[in-house]
Design a protein that fits this description.
single chain, 460 residues, alpha/beta, Metallo-beta-lactamase, Chain A, Rossmann fold, 2 domains, seven-stranded mixed β-sheet, 14 helices, 22 strands, 21% strand, globular
């Protein structure tokens, strides 16, 4: 039996990906988030390592939200023996049905491609997990309600463990968690949203905690406060005036829907010309439909959600996507993935990147090591489908559309905490961002804070 409560950092420590936190108390193991490592190759390779403890010894998993860097390792955990419940909000479950199955399908396709072309170091190349593994993981999901609303059956209570979910405004269904384990309160922020998001409502206020685990994706930065409507309209109008089109690499969950709303509103307000708009991502289309079903949890009412579907052409099939190659008029194409790491957006990118009239407009965080980050940094040649291409298109980034709170937004949110935590653990950020936010907590709030290393175990 373990005395007290221990917290082990199995991911999102020193990096902005792979969120996994292990709580051990009274001989019990539970996991908060179960994410994939993404970005640099050395990070992705961590997904293949043996899990530090026997997955079958984990009693339950609690998800803050559906993004793959928080949920995408679940099928692998199940493959290796986990069989407990996965607790999350209803919208998170609905999004995970889309994201986990898509991730598994891509894993299988990548392995098959490597085997066909015989360029894997392994014989045969295997997927990290399969669609069957993803289905098994999804069968373990149990829905809980938000604790700050009139949802039925809010939160989870399992003996000396209880977990409450509070909306944190990052994406549909996302939450910060108040975990009470063996008498200790630990607050996990998840990915914190913003008070002025186009679609998501502002985060609920924080609740009392003994210990705080806080994200720091933008812990050393402030978002640009320029006017979102005028800035976006200016980029669109300048592109159209040259006869060019816009390609917007979009995260299927959250950013695609925000950009759809922004672009269609600009068109309705006559701030930009009446351009054809295409959403070329089956996953983003499915997520848009999920958003319509959960309209009570975001700013857009049901009618406005339905209007998005009417004002935009959805291209679900490969054949429909290929017809966009034949466009001869300025248009706006939104396509996944948001960091231009894979998916249909690469086909559009390879076609449009060499034309100076076009604009590639990024609308979200670009993790280091990704193609999106390299383009935003100004690289003049970029590798797509195995060959280097000259970057002649205009590259723009709308930092102010980020779904993550910046340094000041995080601090303002934390200032509402009823009392100062005994200790703060700064996670889910690049090293410079996490350390700068640690300093901010120390100096501006006078809170004790540290940046844990991967694998650190802390007694609470």
């Amino acid at each position: 039996m373990t005395n007290g409560v221990s917290l082990t950092f199995l991911g999102a420590a020193g990096t902005v990906t792979g969120s996994r936190y292990l709580l051990t108390f009274n001989g019990r193991n539970v996991l908060v988030d179960c994410g994939l490592f993404q970005g640099y190759k050395h990070l992705r390779e961590r997904n293949w390592r043996d899990f530090p403890i026997d997955p079958s010894s984990i009693e339950a998993v609690f998800l803050t939200h559906a993004h793959l860097d928080h949920s995408g390792y679940l099928p692998r955990l199940v493959q290796n023996g986990f069989n407990g419940p996965v607790f999350c909000t209803k919208a998170t479950r609905d999004l995970c049905k889309i994201l986990l199955m898509d991730a598994a399908k891509l894993q299988e396709e990548e392995a098959a491609y490597r085997n066909r072309h015989k360029y894997s170091r392994h014989e045969p190349a295997l997927p990290l997990y399969t669609q069957e593994d993803a289905q098994k993981a999804l069968a373990l999901f149990e829905v809980v309600g938000f604790s700050d609303s009139d949802d039925p059956e809010p939160g989870v209570s399992l003996g000396d463990l209880s977990v409450s979910f509070y909306a944190n405004g990052h994406i549909l269904g996302s939450s910060f968690l108040d975990v009470q384990a063996a008498g200790k309160h630990i607050l996990f922020s998840g990915d914190m949203g913003r008070g002025n998001d186009l679609i998501m409502r502002a985060p609920e206020l924080p609740v009392y905690c003994d210990y705080l685990v806080i994200e720091s994706t933008y812990g050393n930065r402030l978002h640009d406060n320029q006017d979102i409507w005028d800035s976006t309209a200016k980029i669109v109008n300048e592109t159209v005036s040259t006869g060019g089109s816009l390609l917007i690499p979009s995260f299927a969950v959250g950013r695609a829907q925000a950009m759809l709303y922004l672009i269609t509103e600009l068109r309705d307000r006559k701030m930009i010309p009446y351009l054809p708009i295409f959403l070329d991502s089956p996953m983003a289309i499915s997520v848009t439909e999920v958003m319509q079903r959960h309209h009570r949890y975001h700013r857009l009412n049901k009618a406005r959600c339905q209007q998005l579907s009417r004002d935009v052409t959805f291209t679900r099939t490969v054949e429909e996507s290929m017809t966009l190659n034949n466009l001869h008029v300025p248009a706006i194409i939104l396509s996944a993935s948001g960091m231009a790491t894979g998916g249909r957006v690469l086909h559009h990118l390879s076609r449009m990147i060499g034309d100076h009239r076009n604009t590639v407009l990024f609308a979200g965080y670009q993790a280091p090591g990704t193609r999106g980050a390299r383009l935003v940094a100004g690289e003049s040649r970029i590798k797509i489908f195995g060959r280097y291409m000259d970057v002649r298109a205009r590259i723009e980034a709308l930092d102010f559309l980020s779904a993550h709170a910046d340094r000041m937004e995080l601090l303002r949110w934390l200032q509402h905490m009823p009392t100062a935590p005994k200790r703060c653990f700064v996670t889910h950020g690049e090293e410079s961002a996490s350390d700068q936010f640690r300093i901010s907590l120390n100096e501006e709030l006078s809170w004790p804070a540290c940046v844990p290393d991967m694998g650190d175990v802390v007694k609470l």
